[in-house]
Each structure stands twice: as structure tokens, then as C-alpha cells.
UniProtKB/TrEMBL annotation:
GO BP field: carbohydrate metabolic process
Protein name: Family 65 glycosyl hydrolase
Residues involved in substrate binding: 354-355, 598-599
Domain Glycoside hydrolase family 65 N-terminal: 13-262
Taxonomy of the source species: Bacteria, Pseudomonadati, Bacteroidota, Bacteroidia, Marinilabiliales
Residue ranges annotated for the Glycoside hydrolase family 65 central catalytic domain, each copy included: 319-686
Keywords: Hydrolase
Molecular-function GO terms, alphabetical: carbohydrate binding; glycosyltransferase activity; hydrolase activity, hydrolyzing O-glycosyl compounds
Stated family: Belongs to the glycosyl hydrolase 65 family.
Species the sequence originates in: Marinilabilia rubra
Domain of life: Bacteria
Length: 775
């Protein structure tokens, strides 16, 4: 754990200059706007440790797969998120000396601030260069949420004696990926141009021919430039802007940037689009762009903010997570998704995992307009053909679909057999997300339009993947990896079998719904996918009805997998802290043979299907599995928080909440320099809304709330969208208040009692201590 950031409700603040923190801060202070994003690299030269990162959503590189033993079915490539040309750069020399904080004589009053309310990143510092020149510097930049192809940097300096400053704003195409299997560079620079106060660059990925154009325009205030020199070479373009600076007088250089890519524009128009964006931005000016940015974020916060009173660390933690989720994915483009590291690092290849369906969708469902999640679902619909091809590669037939573990464009990118071929539960999360969307929005039409085809492909997969055991007289699913990646190739992982069963049943149910609502469309779909409904649905029914769900009679718990009780049963708190995290200290062999669980597995299933289980069953399973869980995936604590709250174990729920909410700010896993855990940030939101807030939507499609509050908090509140409702929920140690912001009357169930709230009105009732059940 590393705690060097100041606590504040709305801002992340780094005070004091320590180059050792720089890489971590580059991740934590990252900016994005859905279309592009970047680590908090400095604008001016920096020769210290850094991970340069500037990313364009959806633009990737299929890097050749590198494995020891090639297995049939492996993908040819692993998609890399690409560090792309750097457009923030502004080099500064003062009387011939380069400003580089790593080399400077002294840096004072250093402050780096991420203003999460308004989406602006700033720095303030004073510096003494090696030639003795002293300056104070202010930098501010943002990626416009309102204009996703626009970014702006304002660089302001005040020297404390007369001097000659040369600003060199530039675009740099000479960039590298830290994560490159063969140390290749991934970009060809096609064109660079520069004229007075303007420059641009057009580049192309070496494979797949993604093209991106960058254009900048500059504006100088506070001094006259003389003898400016536009420059461009094979990899760079920019302007040298010399100015004579006077003692104590502030000079600012603003760099307006347009960034366009070939996913959104014709290739031959890219440069002109980027130039137009830069020029529009300059015409509007910094202040107007900032006003738009503030208004845009204000609107986002109005619907997604969570307020916590009495605990600044928790308040900052949750806002940090909400901020990053919203700047990673804005839901405008169904070709995009939420990578585990978003725009903050290269790890995980920037690709889509089951994290999106299992974690991010619940967040976006309740905080964003409906189209946001619809687009995330359509993303998978568009990949259905590839999922069918993926399954065919593994020997499945008849339109069975296996969605990839990791993907950019629908093709599998993961190449470890125990995950690629075995962590098939991901198919279940994709089907469940469709159901989750429909039960929250009531948009059953989605099934006709897109959903049913996906569900049929997935049901076909499960019905073929399950095989009949003559010994057990049950269908079994052999050789899988559950969500707990600390055991591989196990038989009958309870979670996998449970979700397979659910998918088979839901595919039947969805077929009946479409058949009833729109018989014409139903026959169109069944014809398209070549399905004889009675025959196939009969098979699905029989597999689902007769699937083996392992159970341990002695402990009275669902059994994680057939062989789990053969393992030596030790509790995680018996482990010495010196061996944690296990994955950094133990051999893989030792981990696989141990009973330690990486992340929620059986409990993941109990979370998804909670309404099927009574409190005692949930409690028994929780008490059995949580002590064996080492939470070495950031996706783990939130599920445990929700279930702990459900069984009234508030202390445990709070402990789990703390692990998730400040995971990155406090660098719990000592890896924040690689990037942030964007997808698990949605889990923190779930911890408050579903954990403490007790929000549930079960199969009947009704909204339920069972709020409780940790004793460490005075009050917390959140706002959720549900169908036509827009509700604000405030909980303090005495009471629960629900305010309806929608135009219609809201109906919901609060502590098992149905209530209605007229539009614009609120209801207050005492906190129900029944849900504060003691351990
Ligand atoms: C987790 C997976 C997750 C992946 C990306 C892994 O450590 O075990 O469940 O999908 O990280 O977040």
C-alpha cells in the first residue's frame, strides 16, 4: 500500500515532487473522453521513469502470439492497445536550458490535481533550472467530453527575471509500446506538416491499417513571438515559438488539438477533419471549451454521483471510480467497450473481458441512459458470427457460440489453454447481461431485434459442452476453469454448471417470449439460425433439468467443483502475510493444489441468482468460501461486500468495501503504475448501491431496496435510474429517504413493503434494523 495522495472530496491531489511516484501518478491522474485517453504524462520534457500512454478507443494491433507449446485452437494474435502519437507535448527551454523536472536543480510547491468534478488535470510548481533560472509553471489540460475529437493544453509560465523562452509544441509519432512481443514499433507515419502556429501528423498502424490524424493550433498570450519556426520531419511536426519573457509577467501557450481516426472518417479526409477540429477549438477558445466541459461533467455527476458523509477517504474513493468509468466509456459507439485498464495502461491489451457484462453493465444500467447498455449488448451481438467460428474451431457445431475470453473485434485473443478453452463461464455472463438489461429496462423488444440469436448460440454451446455421465446419471461439464483461476481443468465447477443451466432455461424462456410477442420474427430467427424449436428446446430442457450441481452434505454448501474437498482445507488468515499475494510468492503448482480461491466463484453464482436462496443458505456458503478467498482479483471484494451486507455482516461488508474503493488510489496491489483497474471500479459502485443500499431487481422486474449503513458513515446517498424512475436514495443512521425526480409516480419495494412516491416528492421511513443482523 502506498499512500501519498491527499484526501479531498472532489479532487485527487499530489503535493510535493517525488519522481518515484511519477509512474503511479501517471495512471491515477489519467484522462479520457470515451474516444481517446491518456496517462498523465508531463507536457514538457521528462527524462525520468515513465510509461508513455496515449490511446485511441478501438484502435489496436494484432501482435503475433508468443507461446511455448502451440495448441490447436490458439488464436494467431493478441490484440495490443496501442500507445499512439503523443499530442500533449510542449518542450520548453529557458535561455537555452531544457525544462525537465527530473534534471532540474530544484522543484518546489509541486502540486498535481485531478479535478474530478470538471474533468481537468492541472499542475502547479516552481522550478530552478540548472542555469539558475527560476520560473513558476501552471499547466491545465482536458479531453473534451462534449467534443470527443478535441483536446486542449494550457501551459502558463512566469519567470522571475527577463529571459528567452522557446516553447516547442509538437506532435510526436516516434512512440513505442512497452508491451510488444517482438519489440516492434506499431506505427507508420504517413505525413507530417507544419506552418506558422499549426502542425499535423497522419499515421497508420503497421497491421490492419487503422489511421489516425492529429492537428494542433497554438495561441500565445502575454508575449510577442518572433522568428517562429514551424518544423516537420519523418516522425514529428511542431513549431518553435521563441519569446522574450519579462520578469514577473505571465505567458501562456495554449495548444488546441484535433484527433480523428479511420473508424469514424474516410481515410482521405482524416487530416482535414483533425485540422478542422483544432481550428474550431481555437476559435471557441479555452474558456468556452472549459465551460462546456464543466457542464458536461455536471450532467454526468447529477445522475451518477454517490455522496458519503463522515468519511472523506471513502468519498474520494467512490468518486474516483465513477469518474474513471465515465471517461472510459460513454456509450455512444457500439464498436467500443470497456477494457480492464481503460485508457490508463497497456496491460490486458485494452480488450473486452467478461468484466463488462458482469461488473460494468450493472453500473451503466442504473446511472446512464438506456442506450449505453444497449450498445454494450449490441457489441456482442455484432460478434456473434465470430463467436460461432470460435466454437467451430474447438469442434462445436450447429451454430454453437463461444464468446472469446478476451477480444477486440470478436476474435479470441487469449492464449493460455486453461483460460482460452476452459474459462467458458464467460458465455454465461453475456447471456445474463441480456436478462439483466431487460429486467431493468423492460425493453423486451431487444430479444427480437438482437438478444435471442445470441441466446440461441450460447444455449447450443452449453448443450454440446455438457456430456452425460452414466455414473452420475447427470449431465456434467468437464475440464473447466471457473472464475477462480487458481484451479484449472476441474470437473463440474458449480458456478459454470449453474450458469449453463440458467442459460439453457433462459434461452427457452426468451424463445417463448419472442414467439408470443412477434411470431413472424420468431420464425424469421429460427429460419436464419436453422433451428427446429421443439427439438432443440427439448434438448436444452433435458440438459438443464438434469445437470449435476455438486453439493457437500457435511458442510451443507454448494461445492466449488467435484474435487474441492480433496484439498487440504486451510483458511486464508492462517497464511503468513509474507506469502501474500500468493501469485507473487508461490509456484503455480502450489497455488493450483491449494484450496485458496482467487475471487468469488461459487459466491459469484449466489450473487447472480440470489433470489433462489434463503438467507441461511447464503450465510453458510459465505462463511465457508470467504475465509478461503485471497481476493487476488480486483473483481472479488465487491461481490463479497454485497453478500456480506445481504446476510447482515456489516463489518465484513465494510472491510470488503474498503478493499475495493481505494484499491488504486492507495495502490493496494503495488501495481498501479501499470494502469488502473477500470472494470472493477464498477464493483465499488455495486458495493454501495447493491451492498449497503440493498438494491435488487429480481426476475419479476420490480425494484427493491434494503438499505443499511456502516457505522463509520454519517450518511450516504446515490441516484439510480430504473425504467421510468429516477430516484435519489439517502440513508443515515436513523432513516431512509427516497426522492423521486421522475415525471411519473415511482413504485418500489422498500424493506419488503410496496411504496409509491409521487413525481417530485419524497418518502422517509426509519432505517430497518432487521437488516443489521449480527454475525
Ligand atoms: C480475473 C478475471 C478478469 C481479468 C481482467 C483476472 O485477474 O481473474 O476474472 O476477467 O483479470 O480483469
Amino acid at each position: 500500500m502506498k499512500q501519498y495522495l491527499k484526501q479531498d472530496e472532489w479532487r485527487i491531489i499530489e503535493e510535493g515532487f517525488d519522481p518515484d511516484h511519477h509512474k503511479a501518478s501517471e495512471s491515477i491522474f489519467s484522462l479520457g473522453n470515451g474516444q481517446m485517453g491518456q496517462r498523465a504524462n508531463f507536457e514538457e520534457a521528462w527524462s525520468g521513469p515513465t510509461l508513455q500512454g496515449s490511446y485511441i478507443a478501438g484502435v489496436y494491433y494484432p501482435d503475433k502470439t508468443r507461446v511455448g507449446w502451440w495448441k490447436n485452437g490458439y488464436p494467431e494474435y493478441f490484440a495490443k492497445v496501442l500507445n499512439s502519437p503523443n499530442w500533449i507535448g510542449i518542450n520548453v527551454t529557458v535561455d537555452g536550458e531544457m525544462l525537465d523536472l527530473f534534471k532540474a536543480q530544484k522543484v518546489d510547491n509541486f502540486e498535481r490535481i485531478l479535478d474530478m468534478k470538471n474533468g481537468v488535470l492541472s499542475r502547479r510548481f516552481s522550478v530552478i533550472l540548472n542555469n539558475g533560472k527560476r520560473l513558476t509553471v501552471k499547466t491545465d489540460r482536458f479531453l473534451s467530453m462534449e467534443r470527443p475529437e478535441t483536446g486542449v493544453v494550457k501551459y502558463t509560465m512566469t519567470p522571475n527575471e527577463d529571459c528567452k523562452i522557446i516553447f516547442t509544441p509538437y506532435i510526436n509519432g516516434d512512440v513505442e509500446n512497452e508491451d510488444a512481443n517482438y519489440d516492434e514499433k506499431f506505427w507508420n507515419i504517413l505525413e507530417t506538416n507544419a506552418v506558422l502556429n499549426k502542425a499535423d501528423l497522419l499515421c497508420q498502424t503497421k497491421k490492419l491499417d487503422f489511421r489516425v490524424s492529429y492537428a494542433m493550433e497554438t495561441e500565445l498570450v502575454g508575449a510577442e513571438a518572433s522568428e517562429e519556426q514551424p518544423f516537420s520531419d519523418e516522425l514529428h511536426s511542431g513549431n518553435h515559438i521563441p519569446v522574450l519573457a519579462s520578469k514577473g509577467k505571465e505567458i501562456s501557450l495554449t495548444k488546441y488539438v484535433g484527433v480523428a481516426n479511420s473508424m469514424n472518417h474516410e481515410k482521405d479526409e482524416l487530416l482535414s477533419v483533425a485540422r478542422k477540429k483544432a481550428s474550431e477549438a481555437k476559435t471557441l477558445g479555452y474558456d468556452t471549451l472549459l465551460k462546456e466541459q464543466i457542464a458536461h461533467w455536471n450532467e454526468i455527476w447529477e445522475h451518477s454521483d454517490i455522496k458519503i458523509k463522515g468519511d472523506i477517504a471513502a468519498q474520494q474513493g467512490i468518486r474516483f471510480n465513477i469518474f474513471h468509468l465515465n471517461q472510459t466509456y460513454t456509450g455512444e459507439d457500439e464498436r467500443l467497450n470497456v477494457g480492464p485498464k481503460g485508457f490508463t495502461g497497456e496491460k490486458y491489451g485494452g480488450s473486452t473481458y467478461w468484466d463488462t457484462e458482469a461488473y460494468c453493465i450493472p453500473f451503466f444500467l442504473m446511472t446512464s441512459p438506456q442506450k449505453v447498455v444497449r450498445n454494450l449488448l449490441i457489441y456482442r451481438y455484432k460478434h456473434l458470427r465470430k463467436a460461432i467460428e470460435n466454437a467451430e474451431k474447438l469442434g462445436f457445431t450447429n451454430g454453437a457460440a463461444l464468446y472469446p475470453m478476451v477480444t477486440m473485434n470478436g476474435e479470441e485473443c487469449h492464449n493460455e489453454w486453461e483460460i482460452t478453452f476452459e474459462e467458458i463461464h464467460r458465455n454465461g455472463a453475456i447471456a445474463f447481461a441480456i436478462h439483466n438489461y431487460i429486467r431493468h429496462t423492460g425493453d423486451e423488444k431487444y430479444l427480437e431485434e438482437y438478444g435471442l440469436e445470441v441466446l440461441i448460440g450460447i444455449a447450443r454451446f452449453w448443450s454440446q459442452r455438457a456430456t452425460f455421465s452414466h455414473d452420475k446419471k447427470k449431465f456434467v461439464i468437464l475440464g473447466v476453469t471457473g472464475p477462480n483461476e487458481y484451479e484449472n481443468n476441474v470437473n463440474n465447477n458449480w458456478y459454470t454448471n449453474k450458469i449453463a443451466q440458467w442459460c439453457l432455461n433462459y434461452a427457452r424462456e426468451a424463445s417463448e417470449i419472442v414467439k408470443k410477442n412477434n411470431p413472424g420474427r420468431f420464425s424469421e430467427i429460427t429460419k436464419k439460425v436453422n433451428m427446429d424449436p421443439p427439438t432443440e428446446m427439448g434438448v436444452w430442457k433435458s440438459v438443464a433439468g438434469n445437470i449435476h450441481l455438486p453439493y457437500n452434505e457435511e458442510e451443507e454448501v454448494f461445492l466449488q467443483q467435484d474435487g474441492f474437498m480433496d484439498k487440504e482445507q486451510i483458511m486464508a488468515d492462517e497464511l503468513s502475510p509474507s506469502v501474500r499475494p500468493l501469485n507473487q510468492h508461490w509456484s503455480w503448482d502450489r497455488i493450483l493444489r491449494s484450496c485458496f480461491i482467487k475471487q468469488a466463484d461459487t459466491l459469484q453464482g449466489m450473487y447472480l441468482f440470489e433470489e433462489e436462496f434463503d438467507t441461511e443458505t447464503i450465510r453458510r456458503n459465505f462463511k465457508f468460501y470467504e475465509p478461503r478467498t485471497v481476493h487476488e482479483s480486483s473483481l472479488s471484494p465487491c461481490v463479497h461486500n454485497i453478500l456480506a451486507a445481504r446476510i447482515g455482516d456489516l463489518d465484513k461488508a465494510y472491510e470488503m468495501y474498503l478493499r475495493t474503493s481505494r484499491l488504486d488510489i492507495d495502490d493496494y496491489n503495488r501495481e498501479v503504475h501499470e494502469g488502473l483497474h477500470i472494470t472493477s471500479m464498477a464493483g465499488t459502485w455495486m458495493s454501495i448501491v447493491e451492498g449497503f443500499g440493498g438494491k435488487r431487481v429480481y426476475k419479476d422486474g420490480k425494484l427493491r431496496l434494503y438499505p443499511i449503513i456502516p457505522e463509520q458513515w454519517k450518511e450516504y446517498s446515490f441516484r439510480i435510474r430504473f425504467r421510468r424512475h429516477d430516484l435519489e436514495v439517502r440513508v443515515d443512521q436513523e432513516q431512509v429517504e427516497i426522492i423521486s425526480h421522475a415525471k411519473d409516480e415511482a413504485t418500489l419495494t422498500l424493506y419488503d413493503k410496496e411504496i409509491s412516491i409521487p413525481a417530485g416528492k419524497s418518502v422517509t421511513i426509519p432505517l430497518n434494523i432487521k437488516y443489521h443482523v449480527k454475525k
